[in-house]
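Our preliminary data section would be incomplete without showing what the modeling component actually yields. Below, a chain of 529 amino acids is followed by its predicted structure, encoded as tokens that our downstream tools consume directly.
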Amino acid sequence: MKNVKKRVIAVTACAALVGAGAGALFWSRSHQAAAPVQAQVEETAVPVNVQSPSQGSLEVVAEFIGRVQPDESVNVFPKVAGTVLATHFEVGQQVKKGDLLFEIDPADIQTQVAVAEAAYNMAKAGVNSMLGSTLDLQRLQVDSNLRNAKNAFSNANKAYNDYIDEYDPSVEKLEETCDELYDSLREAQAGYQAASAASAAAKKAYEESITLGASAGAQGLRFEEYQEAKNRAAAAEAAYNSVRGAYEQAKTAYNQAKDGYDVQLDQLRSAMRSANIALDAAEGTEEITNEKAIPEAEASANAQLQQAQASLEASRKQLEYTKVASPIDGVIELKNVEEHGIASQSSPAYIVTNKEIMVARFNVPASAAQAMEAGDALQIENGSTVYTGTVIEVGSMADAQSGLFPVKARIDAQPGELLTGVAVKVSAPTQRVQDALLIPIDSLYHEDGRSYVYLMDESGCARKTYVETGINDNDRIVVTSGLEASSRLITSWNPNLLDGVKVTDASAQPAASSEPEKGTEASSGAQEG
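Predicted structure:
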């Protein structure tokens, strides 16, 4: 058993051995447990070793196959394809960051640069023209239209106000004249009507004097009165007709003046409205031109210039790419280009590695990836040489084909001591518990799929106690339930060790123990890890 504990075994071999050992132990101890207890127990107590469970940490170590790589390795791809003019380093040579590795013929790219420069100069000239004379003329035109619209509105407004100031008094005077003549007309009409009535009365009196046979003198008097009344009526009629004519003329003049005034006033108002609309349009055009059209034109022109400039800079950058330098300090591991050959963007021209720090890359299942974390210590074996290492990266996404998670560990080795691509064996912790209750794995027994141990009780008897267990490292196993830190665990095996048997703590006796020597692994009943 002691030799078994010291062996370093792979996870799969360990699992097989645990299964085989557990089966053998189950068969042996289940038969032993099933054996009837002897009717008479010897008075001599069974000597056993007793100890309390320990408190501590436990981890399970598994082995994986890894590959050694430099932590910093760069595939140098040319950013432009072309004919190689010269190479400056060979495989195995040391390079510094910025050292020129090789050069590509720049002839074709120089032509592209010349074309881009011409396009940029043309774009620059066009932009200068647009931002200069073109926009200046547009501004002048807009400003001129706005000034003209303002002047037109001002003139229309002035003409309207001047017309009102000039023609209002004359129309009002004509209206007053019409009113005065109308009053005169009414007076003349009343005088005419009175004179006509007087003439009719005189005529009637005259005619009555004839009818009544008045004297010639009386008739003559009546006739004279009639003639005078008739003349007054004629004069009143003439006066009335004269005033009426004057009134009609004045009324006609007023109506004509008023109608003409209204028409002209409407025309002036219409002209002023049109001028106001034109002014609003000119102001809107000026606002749109200055706040939107011109800035947009400037932005478009600048964008065109920037595009041409970017194209030129890109061409010049392509020219810079014809000289390919090392991106890191390191060693040339691979060279794929030769003078006069073709450098392709699809394959690395050089591979440069920095071997100051070497790492081992390996893949682990999900359970191991969950248990590992950066900073974990591990062991790397390269043949007979064993190195210590530290986990520096645990992948969080499984490989699509293998379903395993990548892990990277730093190797504590001298620069140049390990070769790139060498396969190594990595021993890494895949399970761990902290502050756990630990017992020797040899003290654990199995029965009907359950695990149990023997404890020494206060009366000095062995007591069979079932427990729940966790992980083990082939020497110790974690007990998750069934024991306490103060429990007195029997750690040695004896063929007479049964539940209720009297036992004595041989480890506490100064004399040599009388415990019989263990036999084969199958008959011992202890579980191998």
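The mean pLDDT is 81. The CA atoms of residues 6 and 243 lie 153 Å apart. Preliminary results of this kind motivate Aim 1 of the renewal.
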